[in-house]
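Homework-ish question, so no full write-ups if that breaks the rules, but can someone show me the predicted structure for this set?
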Amino acid sequence: MILPFIPKGHHAMNAHLHAVGLKKAYRKGRSLEVPVLHGVDFSIEKGEMVAIVGASGSGKSTLLHLLGLLDGPDEGHIYLNGERIDQQPDKKRDHLRNTAFGFVFQSYHLMPELTALENVLMPQLIRLSPWQWFSQKKQLKRDAAEWLERVGLGHRGKHKPSELSGGEMQRTAIARALAGNPQIILADEPTGNLDAESGESVMKLLRDLNRERGMTMIVVTHDLNVARQADRIVRLNQGLVESFTPVLAA
Amino acid sequence: MYKYLLCWRYLKTRYIALASVISVMLGVATMIVVNSVMAGFAHTMRDRLHGILADVVVESYDLDGFWDWRDVQSIIQKECGDLVEATAPTMETFGLLKMYLPDGQAVTRQVMVIGIRPEDRAKTGDFSEFIQDDAGKPIKPGFEVPKNWQTNSPAGHLLKDTPKDDPLHDILKQQAGEQVPDRGAIVGYALATIHRPGSSTDDFIAPPGSRIGLAFPKSGRKPEAAYDDYTVVGYFKSGMSEYDSMHVYVPLERLQYMRMLGDGLGAGAVNQIQIQVKPGVNINEIAGRLQRVLDSRRPMYFRVATWEQKQGPLLEAVKIEQFILNVLLFLIIAVAGFGILAIFSMIVVEKTRDIGVLKALGASTSGVRGIFLSYGLALSIVGCGAGMIEGLLIVHYLNDIENVINSLTGTRVFNPDIYYFSEIPTLVEPWTVAGIVLGAIAIAVTASVWPAQRASKLHPVQALRFE
Ligand SMILES: Nc1ncnc2c1ncn2[C@@H]1O[C@H](COP(=O)(O)OP(=O)(O)O)[C@@H](O)[C@H]1O
Ligand SMILES: [Mg+2]
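A: Not a homework solution, just the prediction itself:
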């Protein structure tokens, strides 16, 4: 295995997810180019909870998408458990998205045709062939129901997303992210669309999961109150990682 | 697995997509109905044509025919006797028919005069099934004029009371023979009757026992007509108006004699030999073989044709008509395919964010494509299946539907006078139905390929950002 270039001061050897020199620019046509990331280094340890903050449009979502293999960087490398993942073939990247990462989005992105329980089952539904699905269906449904229970929605399994409140939808989305047994949760402004109270409960849920299960977690936010709950804060500014801020005492 | 779940849910929640396959459904139903009716017509027509015509006909190019027909018959017997069921010598020529009305007027029609030996002709084709009396009851083909018809004629009545030695006796006897000739003729039903619209019974211009006059070409150096008269003894009703309004059957020997092509006792010329082959025999092969043998006997004189070849243009016309209709109807389904394409593209746009989520959750390109392809397949199976059921139901109840339309509009959609079909004939050919349904499914699925491809190629991040 080729050892990655490890910037000084990073605990790269035991880094869970680790990115070096990420560059990304959006192209519109041939001439117009919008540079977003200018060479971002990022690292997170197992069980760590990191908040990415920055002004709107600073490239937080872009960075998260790169880390979660939803998009490819123009330059730079990404390592998961020391293994380079950004240049894997499509099939492998699909598989990693399904098994290694769990996404939580600002606007929940639940499937409107499916019930809450079915939404939670989605990662498994994608993973399994019909044959596998039918042979494990019972167990999987029980697990999914347990996850819904864990996020406090045990009684709403049969409801469609349109029948849930914003906070409930977001908690369903978190249950969905967890039901795939991922190694890392990637949350893009999970409280962005929620009122203060629901946002608080969603953040508490994420924080608890991080504590209880040692789940590695990257949370993008521009709300400093949210960021404060993380172990570490990373600030994006002008396409660069500006500072590693220690957690402010609450 | 998610493919099938989502496909199923889309099917249950998106009625607009079901609307898009209604056009396919209607197209399939129409095609099945049209094809069944056309096949029914073609089949019934073929049946009737085949019934009227013998399987294979040997004919001479010369209308005056050939005298050595018994030799030709034995050649046929020698060449393929084991394949042949029966043969019938026939003399066929065009002619003029005159029918005399009670009020003294006469009706003249152009006809085909066919001299046959009834017992021979009855063995070739379904000829005997088409012979009936004025009440529509089937009768045995034959030309005997019942004796009492002559005695019941005006002259016959007088003759009864006239002693044999009376000088009038011979004159009356001759007159009775003129009023009711002792030669019978079987006249095409449509020639002998007039059908008045709205009336359920047909009026006879030439009722049984009436005298008809026939003129036809005589053999000889100069073109000349011979004239003869006959008594109507029966009617020919095959259901093909072309024949029922043209054919007049007369005794072969008499026709030969009158055309100066025979002695009236058996020796004479014929211009056709009708051949009935045994069931399952390849008639084209027999025709080819006979043509070769007869050509070597007398080159450029005989023409051997199967009944299909003789009716070639008609059968071919039906086939071409059916083909063109099918092309047009398939184009309609293709148009419906574009409707599916449009609606599917809209659904893909509507589902853009969901597609982004699926990809974020690890769905592959082919998986996303699979959702929309199986969705398209499911929809087209639903549409085409419904179309098939609808089409078959319409075919099944076609005549009831026609009756309803008739009573609603007061007109006859399907006029049985033209075809003598009491109802619209239909024939459901399973392979045709299968072809239509599979073809339509193929078109509908093809129409969903492009939207599915577009969905699968969506970039996950752009799809997620899509508002
Ligand atoms: N597809 C795109 N084409 C062009 N510019 C884009 C595209 N997506 C994002 N951007 C730009 O990239 C920048 C960073 O976007 P984003 O990562 O969403 O920022 P954040 O999440 O921090 O608000 C923004 O200026 C945005 O306008
Ligand atoms: Mg953002």
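Now go work out the reasoning yourself. Hint: The interface with chain A takes residues 1-2, 4-6, 9-10, 13, 353-354, 356-365, 367, 459-461, 464 of chain B (CB under 8 Å).
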